[in-house]
Amino acid sequence: MEYSLRKDTEFARDVSVGLSGNNKFLSSKYFYDHKGDELFQKIMQLPEYYLTRKEFSILEEHHRCIMERILDFPEFNMVEMGAGDGLKTKILLEYLYNQKANFTYYPIDISGNVLKQLETSLHVSYPGIEVSPIVSNYKNALQDPLWNRKTKTLLLFLGANIGNFVWDDAVKVLRKIARSLQEGDMALIGFDFKKDPELILRAYDDSQGVTKDFNLNILTRINKELGGNFDLTKFKHWPVYNPVNGECRSYLVSLVEQEVTIEALKQRFKFKKAEAIHTEVSKKYDKDELLLLAEDSGFEVLENFEDCDGYFTDSLWRK
Ligand code: AVJ
Q1: pTM
Q2: Which atom of ligand 1 is nearest to the CA of 40?
Q3: Is the separation of the CB atoms in 284 and 196 below 8 Å?
Q4: Residue 48 and residue 272: Cα distance in Å, rounded?
Q5: How many whole angstroms from 31 Cα to the centroid of ligand 1?
Q6: Is the C-beta atom of 51 inside 6 A of ligand 1?
Q7: ipTM metric
Q8: How far is the CA of 59 from the centre of ligand 1 (A)?
Q9: 298 alpha carbon to ligand 1 midpoint, in Å?
């Protein structure tokens, strides 16, 4: 085996816990290895996956309005959670660059690789721009903020990434964000709205099966990194949307009774026929929920910037 199988990682522990109980689950944060990043890039191009295009159109249309709120300050920070390739943020950065704004951009991402690429490309496109990448997970980055907290801050949390948290966890994350900010600082947060359930479900069950591969990739990753022997053909990608709570949940359903061995854990896991592993939640909101969520986590909603169909919002909040 060419990989050194380690059982002392967070991934190993989480897989062991997640597959041991009766309600099996794996966290969607483990989707994003190299292959997963690639698949997610493909998802963003899918005709059914409206989220990215909608948010892009919002930023194209409203970036001036959004940025007016912070351009008044002589100097400011722009902090971005989960910056990734920063493609959407470039709309904002380009505008700030042309306005000769005095700011520092702090992209936060767990992938140092992606951040390096982003930094290089920003220095080419916008020479002289101040970029200070932070390689970290959300939690650590918010615990000890590396940006100057005396300077006015706009924090970006785009892409509906907050949707991966169920309500209570979203409140926890947003409270952490609030704690990392000062009175008067702002956050721009991307939320996908509740809408026709069919449109939502299709976004997570595309006709080319890219989302299916994305979901199954978590099993591939267990096979590769932990020496698992999952047979991918024996699991079915099964997304469901609940229009009451707005949760779109994805599952991998075992098509047969089977046993899987994970070498690194020295454990075997039994799957009953039709037993499901819960892998992801993508929560959809309505406007009343947004107001509640903001209030619960210590913010006020300043303005909602929406696309023309009302599918998505970048919601501007102030602490
Ligand atoms: C990156 C978390 C916003 O939930 O819509 C896309 C991830 N999962 N297709 C989402 C995802 C399946 C995506 N987020």
Answers
A1: 0.95
A2: 6
A3: no
A4: 32
A5: 10
A6: yes
A7: 0.99
A8: 19
A9: 26
75 CA to centre of ligand 1 in angstroms: 34
**pLDDT tens by residue, 98-143:** 999 999 999 999 888 889 999 999 999 999 999 999 999 889 999 9
DSSP-assigned beta bridge partners for residue 283: 247
Question: Is the predicted pLDDT of residue 2 greater than 80, yes or no?
Answer: no
Q: What is the DSSP string of 154-215?
A: EEEE-TTGGGGS-HHHHHHHHHHHHHHS-TT-EEEEEEEBP--HHHHHHHTS-TT-HHHHHH
The tokens of 56 are what? 């892009």
CB 187 within 8 A of CB 155: yes
Nearest ligand 1 atom to alpha carbon 160: 3
Q: Does residue 81 surpass a pLDDT of 80? A: yes
Any ligand 1 atom below 6 A from CB of 43: yes
Question: How far is Cα of residue 120 from the mean position of the Cα atoms in its chain?
Answer: 23
Closest ligand 1 atom number to CA of residue 215: 12
First to last CA, the chain: 51
